[in-house]
Amino acid sequence: MRKRRIWTPGRGYLSLLILPGIFFCAFFIWPLGTVVYQGLFQPRFGFGNYATILASTTHIRVLMFTFRLAGEVTLLCLLIAYPVAYTLSRAGEGMLRVGLAIVLIPFWTSVVIRTYAWSALFQRHGLVNDLLVQAGIVDEPIKFIYNEVGVLIGMTQILLPFMILPLLNAMRRMDGTLLRAAEVLGANPVRVFVHIYLPLSMPGVTAGVLLVFISAVGFYVTPAVLGGPQQMMIAVLIEQYVTRTLNWPLASALATILLIATTLLYLAYERATRRIGGMFGAEAT
Amino acid sequence: MTAVAMHGLCKRFGAVEVLAPLDLEIRQGEFISLLGPSGSGKTTLLNICAGYLEPTAGKLIVGGRDITALPRRGRNIGMVFQSYALFPHLDVFENVAYGLRVRRMTSREIAQRVPEVLRTVRMDGFERRAIHSLSGGQQQRVALARAMVIEPDILLMDEPLGALDRQLRKDVQVEIRRMHLAHPRTTLYVTHDQEEALVMSDRIAVMRAGRVVQMGSAADLYERPADGFVARFIGESNLLAGTVEKLSGGQAALAVPGLRLRVVGHAGVGLEVGARASALLRPEHVRPKPGGLAARVAERIFLGEIVALRLLLPGGVSLWSRLFGADVPYSDEIEIGWDDARVSILAET
Question: CA dist A83 to A80, A87, A158, A161, A204, Å?
């Protein structure tokens, strides 16, 4: 095993990073610092804002709902994406290209527009309900939106590619001889899938789950448009404190909670991939 | 006792015949190598045995059972892959135990048999090691253990030493041979490396363009190759092209342009008087002989215990000779000869 040589930039090259570095500090680190600072120091220093948040059942409910919904969206995405990625991973070059295009084309339309498209489709007198009523399948229009179902459908559709792509990547890299080895050892298809295929696709599963979950936790537009008053997510709550009640310190504290939660998840992901990566030796890194 | 029988086994892809109809019998506990260049059909034959390819026609009988149409998992076959194909998410023990768990063996039996087979491949003590922490040679032995532990009717190996470096490959060859002699197991071994085949096999099937050209022990193939292809493929060889002048009593005489004497030797199959043929002279049989053919040493190549000499004969014929250091003449002008009993006259291929 030869060790890979790592290219280290010289001093001259490092100066190329000065401009992006300034930009990064001015427009990311500084505002983020301000958010954390406000949550902790205003109106006075201490954990007052956090105490307010934890004391209010509304806040707790919103937080719980946010994480539960993100979990549901992640699970839905995984259940839909796994078979899709599996099929694509076994397809020929041509089919794979078509499949990838279908997965990626929704990215050409912004999240806001796609969300409104869902609301147009699912309204009380939207396309879907009109069709269902006219076809006589239902008597009354079904309530698709302004509830949890609507948010789930919208968010799952938007986040699905973030699950499909890492899964596909892991599945395409899988060594087919391992599956053949299991077969020749006598394993039936179910056994091969459960004991060999599934564990070997885990790097893709963890990557996809984290990507989707972290994105889902911070979602704003889709729950705001497709959800009802019961479906308030943390981002919507923060927005209300910022624009309506002008309670910026409390909004900052909420944002910090979100930041900490996602950071912890990311660290867990790092640890998980390092463990899985170690299992697969150098190939997986 | 016949362990494996192939009757007219063949494979065609459209109009391309990758494996010509083949009849082959392998005795219980025999180690057979399929030796040939890439594209000779040896891997095709292995894949048919493993069930990865369906034969176009023919029957495959293993252990008295017709398994031609059987799915892979019903075949009870052990397979060692070139890439080892060990499961990276399982440790050594679980890799070896996999085939036993699939066979619903009790964990007590598994706990007994896995260390046993690991001992035969000298990997005992590595049970809980992760696959990626093993060297190539160790992974190879675990792969072998995993294939052997299920007591397969036949063990298939697809160039399993291809990924190892030269020295290690030699060690593992000898080790596989030793293991095979201790516990004979019917084995079909695919390789393009003549040395591997010579060291390990009971019999070797030399393949070319989808056909078995010759099958026999290593010594048979070396001393009495069926044709020039086999002669070139196994060992070093001098092949002198000429015309058959006489054929009698299993002997043939060949007239070689530029050589004043007729080359006489054991007659191979398919020879006809007047037809083109080649004389096979192994370099170690071309030796200094007082009163023999005059020759000039054109090149001396030092190979350690032996020296290779390129000899130029007056008629323009060039021959290689391989001699032990002590037998090498000092002079560049020498006289050479060979024993007719060591010569084979082979039909053109």
Answer: 6, 6, 18, 13, 13
